[in-house]
Amino acid sequence: MNRKLRIGIIGAGGIARSAHIPNYQNYGDAVEVVAVANHNKEKAEDCAREFSISHAYEDYQDMLREMDLDAVSICTPNAFHAEQAIAAMESGCHVLCEKPPAISSSDAEKMEEAASRLGKHLMYGFHFRFRPEVETVKRFIDEGEMGEIYAAEAKWNRRRGIPGWGVFTNKELQGGGTLIDNGIHMLDSALYLMGYPEPKTVLGVTYDKIGKRPGVGLLGEWDHENFSVEDMARGMIAFQNGASLLFESSFAANIADKDARVLKVMGDQGGADVFPLTMYQEKHDTLLDLTPPYVDKGNAHKDMVHHFIESILMGQKTSGHTHQGTLVQRIIEALYESAATGKAVEM
Ligand SMILES: NC(=O)c1ccc[n+]([C@@H]2O[C@H](COP(=O)([O-])OP(=O)(O)OC[C@H]3O[C@@H](n4cnc5c(N)ncnc54)[C@H](O)[C@@H]3O)[C@@H](O)[C@H]2O)c1
């Protein structure tokens, strides 16, 4: 490609400003962020000024029509992802869409269908896959060092981390709470390390014991009066290949840690705790703990955005495989369905 990649941003809020725009702009000369759209025009203009972006739009459709874009980042509330991603692909763009893919599995399926029909990259914002700890464990698994991964645990619990900004506690706009927001990162990372097996049976439970009343807000003051999502989700997923995954996440729970992630994989030849990283093996009649003396902190958002750019420039598949986004969305929907009905969901 001779000209610069022309990037547009839809949604000029927190993640666009902290992760997407700076990491397009630090890629170098091959890429230029040429426009930003936000349904609140002032926000679009403010963002354009802050990042020296030449065009600001109120209506993202006008941006798609007028700016001759090659790719867009979608950084809006979850309920808008599907419509905006499909419109962007239909206008000829590749798409990096923030997680979750959508608020329903039927929307995620439509997005996957559009990407395949139109031959576009559709990558999701699963940046934890780009964490050095996850990449290291993936390399060990891919080299067969852990054998068959048959069990995993994925948790992200916060003591009082209900987001106080945006619309994270609004079910209509987000599709849910902690499960679809922070929980999805650990779910995706575990599934990624397990090789994304096909789910068979899903059992989920959700709670809203803390979010509906006022309290100490370690991520800002949340709107407890209009809190319509779950503040805790727990579940178990059994897969068709016999593997199983235990899941738990919370925006708020009465636990010791302010914010704690647990990601464990267990194989028949070895296993790992990913955060912090230690791997477990048995060799020559000896049980071993393998802890790297140094793990680079990395910059997962940067690596994710640069991977998206390079996938376009080199015409290669993105690692946030579109179909895996659909699968994780189906699992999330089944966890919510199981929580609502009190019954396990057969997939
Ligand atoms: N990968 C991560 O670590 C991570 C972190 C935070 C948020 N996110 C995801 O990013 C998305 C946005 O989250 P955020 O924290 O940036 O929220 P935010 O509220 O800070 O920003 C959202 C922006 O979208 C704008 N917007 C709302 N509806 C719109 C529409 N229909 N068209 C155009 N613009 C619209 C809002 O005005 C706001 O500027 C969510 O999907 C969230 O799940 C991902």
From TrEMBL:
It comes from Pontibacillus chungwhensis. Residues 5-126 form the Gfo/Idh/MocA-like oxidoreductase N-terminal domain. InterPro entries: Gfo/Idh/MocA-like_OxRdtase_C (IPR004104), Gfo/Idh/MocA-like_OxRdtase_N (IPR000683), Gfo/Idh/MocA_Oxidoreductase (IPR052515), NAD(P)-bd_dom_sf (IPR036291). It comes from the Bacteria. It holds the Pfam family GFO_IDH_MocA. Signal peptide: none annotated. Residues 138-347 form the Gfo/Idh/MocA-like oxidoreductase C-terminal domain. This is Gfo/Idh/MocA family oxidoreductase. Transmembrane segments: none annotated. Belongs to the Gfo/Idh/MocA family.
